[in-house]
């Protein structure tokens, strides 16, 4: 069964070995279909969830309210949801956004503004989402668990980023030098080596830097 592949994690090795043996230990309790990985089973089980959002026009049902709203537009003769064109530009770095409010929010990266205060420790954040994520450190709430190693995380994005360590996936590739990265922010930080962009400005001395840290 030795194919020469090496893995940094024992659980990933076990999952890989099952591709050779054909073993599928994770069985769906609803339809008894079996899977090699627990994560694949969990994803499959969502297909059995009750479709609770019903269209009043044709009785078609959906698992998500967003898809129901999208479907209802067909009955009204309206066009499907379109992406908002990104034509509002940040004057500091040139990044484009669909709305002016998004630019204002983004500019906090450049200004260092942190209007969201944690009532527990007094730490401030530029975005409300960052504050909410930080507050979970005080409560100990880490609801997102990796099916491979059972490590838990504060937010889904951290779990997805962690899972790439099991798979070895690095989907974000630099077009300049071909180097690959786990996440888009890691790629963007790397690309500043090529572009020379330094978006982070010190409020004390005015010196600019390519990274916030």
TrEMBL record:
<feature type="domain" description="C2H2-type">
    <location>
        <begin position="144"/>
        <end position="171"/>
    </location>
</feature>
<keyword id="KW-0805">Transcription regulation</keyword>
<keyword id="KW-0539">Nucleus</keyword>
<dbReference type="GO" id="GO:0000978">
    <property type="term" value="F:RNA polymerase II cis-regulatory region sequence-specific DNA binding"/>
</dbReference>
<dbReference type="GO" id="GO:0000981">
    <property type="term" value="F:DNA-binding transcription factor activity, RNA polymerase II-specific"/>
</dbReference>
<dbReference type="Pfam" id="PF13465">
    <property type="entry name" value="zf-H2C2_2"/>
</dbReference>
<comment type="function">
    <text>May be involved in transcriptional regulation.</text>
</comment>
<feature type="domain" description="C2H2-type">
    <location>
        <begin position="26"/>
        <end position="53"/>
    </location>
</feature>
<dbReference type="InterPro" id="IPR050527">
    <property type="entry name" value="Snail/Krueppel_Znf"/>
</dbReference>
<protein>
    <recommendedName>
        <fullName>C2H2-type domain-containing protein</fullName>
    </recommendedName>
</protein>
<dbReference type="GO" id="GO:0032502">
    <property type="term" value="P:developmental process"/>
</dbReference>
<keyword id="KW-0238">DNA-binding</keyword>
<feature type="domain" description="C2H2-type">
    <location>
        <begin position="53"/>
        <end position="80"/>
    </location>
</feature>
<dbReference type="GO" id="GO:0008270">
    <property type="term" value="F:zinc ion binding"/>
</dbReference>
<keyword id="KW-0863">Zinc-finger</keyword>
<comment type="similarity">
    <text>Belongs to the krueppel C2H2-type zinc-finger protein family.</text>
</comment>
<feature type="domain" description="C2H2-type">
    <location>
        <begin position="172"/>
        <end position="199"/>
    </location>
</feature>
<feature type="domain" description="C2H2-type">
    <location>
        <begin position="1"/>
        <end position="25"/>
    </location>
</feature>
<dbReference type="Pfam" id="PF00096">
    <property type="entry name" value="zf-C2H2"/>
</dbReference>
<dbReference type="InterPro" id="IPR013087">
    <property type="entry name" value="Znf_C2H2_type"/>
</dbReference>
<keyword id="KW-0677">Repeat</keyword>
<feature type="domain" description="C2H2-type">
    <location>
        <begin position="88"/>
        <end position="115"/>
    </location>
</feature>
<dbReference type="GO" id="GO:0005634">
    <property type="term" value="C:nucleus"/>
</dbReference>
<keyword id="KW-0862">Zinc</keyword>
<keyword id="KW-0804">Transcription</keyword>
<keyword id="KW-0479">Metal-binding</keyword>
<dbReference type="InterPro" id="IPR036236">
    <property type="entry name" value="Znf_C2H2_sf"/>
</dbReference>
<feature type="domain" description="C2H2-type">
    <location>
        <begin position="116"/>
        <end position="143"/>
    </location>
</feature>
């Amino acid at each position: 069964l030795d194919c020469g592949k090496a893995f940094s994690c024992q659980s990933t090795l076990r999952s890989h070995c099952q591709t050779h043996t054909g073993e599928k230990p994770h069985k769906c309790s609803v339809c008894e279909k079996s899977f090699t990985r627990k994560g694949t089973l969990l994803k499959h089980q969502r297909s059995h969830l009750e479709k609770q959002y019903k269209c009043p026009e044709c009785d078609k049902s959906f698992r998500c309210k967003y898809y129901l709203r999208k479907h209802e537009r067909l009955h009204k003769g309206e066009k499907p949801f379109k992406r908002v064109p990104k034509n509002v530009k940040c004057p500091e770095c040139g990044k484009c956004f669909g709305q002016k409010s998004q630019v204002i929010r983004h500019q906090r990266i450049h200004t260092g503004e942190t209007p969201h205060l944690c009532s527990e420790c007094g730490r401030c954040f530029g975005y409300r989402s960052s504050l909410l994520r930080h507050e979970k450190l005080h409560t100990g709430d880490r609801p997102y668990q990796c099916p491979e190693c059972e490590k838990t995380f504060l937010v889904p994005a951290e779990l997805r980023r962690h899972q790439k360590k099991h798979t070895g996936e690095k989907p974000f590739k630099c077009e300049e030098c071909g180097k690959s990265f786990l996440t888009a922010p890691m790629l963007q930080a790397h690309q500043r080596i090529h572009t020379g962009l330094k978006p982070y400005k010190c409020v004390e001395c005015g010196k600019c830097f390519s990274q916030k840290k």
